[in-house]
Amino acid sequence: MGHSLIFMPECHSTNDEASRLLDSNTQVMEGTVVITNAQTSGRGQRGSTWVSEPGKNLTFSLLIKPTFLAVLDQFYLNMTFSLGLADYLNNALTSDIRIKWPNDIIVNDKKVCGILIENHVQGQNIQHSIVGIGLNVNQTNFSVPHATSMKLQKDHEFALENVLPELLSFLETRYLQLRSGNLEELINDYLTIFYWKGERHMFKKADEIFEGEITGIDPFGKLKINVDGTTEYFEVKQIQFLK
Ligand code: BTN
């Protein structure tokens, strides 16, 4: 991963640039990275925006071709890349890293990284995926209270040119694990560091606030919450974590 690297000083969104590259009919190597210093219209999950101070963080997209993966199994990509990030951060920060469903990376109850995976499907299989990663590295001021960065956690700067190759090597290890079909271990590792698992918390669905306990995910990646003794299943857009 990262042997082919396309750097743009500024762009709207690296996911959009990666998508354009794939549409352009040029041969794109698996593992190609599209990276920028300044993203002007960064996109997040659920139609949100991703704001990142220019030059301080990593904002990039990784192009992969998981043609071995059935569309129905696409949630494995969330597990694979969130685990790769968690592995890297665990090593770099030596802190307790958690994955908040489906793929936010949390350290000390704050979000340090977001992932936006966009799949291109052909028939029953995935043709290619764009894995967009926004990792807060050296930014120290955020407009939202629940955001953090590696620097805020460790009290020192990180060299972005070192963070990228190290992170890519952790991502590659997990991707190879997925490709080898070692899925049980992926699920186990994912659920081992699952944020709020086995604890009672408040959630919100539409206008309804309720208390429940996360018990895991179903085979399609839906979140399972035990609410008053009954297991309920949630899609990404349906539920908000409150407190
Ligand atoms: C989220 O947590 O909502 C996902 C955020 C993903 C942000 C990254 S930054 C690089 C790539 N390009 C985008 O437009 N978004 C992703």
Note down, in words, how this protein is organized.
It is built from 5 helices and 12 strands. It is 26% helix and 34% strand. Helix 2 crosses helix 4 and helix 2 packs across helix 5. The protein has a 7-stranded mixed sheet with strand order 1-2-3-7-6-5-4, with helices on both faces. With 243 residues, it is α+β, with helices and mostly antiparallel strands. The model has no long low-confidence stretch (mean pLDDT 97). Bound molecules: biotin. Biotin binds next to helix 1, strand 3, strand 6 and strand 7.
Instruction: Give a quick account of the main beta sheet: strands, pairing sense, barrel closure.
Output: 7 strands, mixed
Shape: globular
Element order: H for helix, E for strand: EHEEHEEEEHHHEEEEE
Number of strands: 12
Bound molecules: biotin
- Relative strand content: 25-35%
Distance separating the two termini: 37 Å
Strand arrangement in the largest pleated sheet: 1-2-3-7-6-5-4
Structural class: alpha+beta
Topology record:
Elements: E1 5-11, H1 14-23, E2 33-39, E3 58-64, H2 75-93, E4 97-100, E5 104-107, E6 110-122, E7 125-135, H3 150-154, H4 160-179, H5 183-192, E8 200-205, E9 208-217, E10 223-227, E11 230-234, E12 239-241
Parallel strand pairs: 1-2
Antiparallel strand pairs: 2-3, 3-7, 4-5, 5-6, 6-7, 8-9, 8-12, 9-10, 10-11
What is the compact description of this entry?
It is built from five helices and twelve strands. The protein is an alpha+beta fold and 243 residues long.
Question: What brief labels describe this structure?
Answer:
single chain, 243 residues, alpha+beta, five-stranded antiparallel sheet, 5 helices, 26% helix, 34% strand, globular, binds biotin
